[in-house]
Amino acid sequence: MAGKFITLEGGEGVGKTTNIEFIKEYFLQLNIPVVVTREPGGTPIAETLRKILLAKHEETISGQTELLLMFAARSQHLSEVIYPNLKKGNWVLCDRFTDATYAYQGGGRKVADNKIACLENLVQGDFRPDLTLLLDAPVEVGLVRAKTRNELDRFEMEQIDFFKSVRETYLNRAKQYPERIKIIQADQVLEQVQKQIAEQLEQIVKGND
Ligand code: T5A
Q: What is the pTM of this model?
């Protein structure tokens, strides 16, 4: 792939959406072409799946169904947006990717990791992000921030233990893949959060020269 694939991860309300514009601007200042996208979503079909995943339903959606829908959306997103842009030389900046599946469907819903890994290999082969910024903050901080916005979606209505498992899974993955996943302390003022992000971006840009 000619471009780099960068993902943003973290629990609810940690500031991914807020910081994605900052990251985009950082690359544009350096004349690096960048495309911003998100998961679940990023294409019309994947956005339709997102609506199903985030809406509240009378019927319960099982962890396994959630997992399959996430990867269906991801498969479409990869073939329509992520791979074509990387091949063209654009850098792709994605709000959440497969680490979120391990954290939410694995850590949160308790779907076995080997089921997730099986779909990861089916859908992505050995394709992984070049860099993942994990915005980490105590669960309570993120939830307070998330609740200041619009109506809560199906995930945001979960109990605190769910979000604690999500956070723990993310932190475990950062320990498992320290070269790829960089932890950003996201409970600080925005300026400090962006300073840490810029330090990581500087490294990946240097590595690309
Ligand atoms: N999901 C997703 C899965 O279960 N499995 C998967 O495989 C994938 C891909 C939707 C849901 O899908 C689930 C996880 C999610 O529940 P989403 O829309 O990306 O994914 O998720 P959310 O976490 O809901 O996104 P949010 O928009 O809620 O959170 P953000 O983007 O992290 O937070 P943001 O930037 O909107 O900030 C929230 C508030 O905090 C303020 C902002 O101004 C905003 O008001 N804020 C700060 N305030 C003070 N100090 C700072 N440093 C601040 N940074 C931001």
A: 0.96
